[in-house]
Amino acid sequence: MNLSIFQIAAAIAMVIVTGALFSAYRSYLAANSERRMLSMIDSIGLDPAIASSSDLETIMSEVRQRCRSCTSEDVCERWLTCNEKSDNDFCPNSKAFEVLEKHS
Description:
Blueprint (H helix, E strand, L loop, with lengths): L1 H42 L13 H12 L4 H8 L13 H10 L1
Helix pairs in contact: 1-2, 1-3
C-alpha cells in the first residue's frame, strides 16, 4: 500500500516538474522573440519605445504574435548581427515595420 502512495506522489511530482519546465521554455522563447523584435525595430531605425506605446497597442500585439510564430529565427539572428546582407523581407513583420516607419 505504501508503495502505491509513493508511486502516485512521484507521478504527481513528475507532472508538476514537466509543467514547470514547459512553462519556463515558453517564457524563454517569448523573451528571445521580444529581444529579436526590439532589435529589428532598432535596426531599421524605429524608436524601440514604439513597442510599448499605448497608441499602437493593437498593432504591436499583432507584431509580437507574428514574431513569436516566426519560422525564420536563424535568418533573423544572422541579419541582426549583420551576417546577412539582404533586406529584411524574410521577416513576417517587414510590411508592418514599413508602415510604422512611414507614420513615425
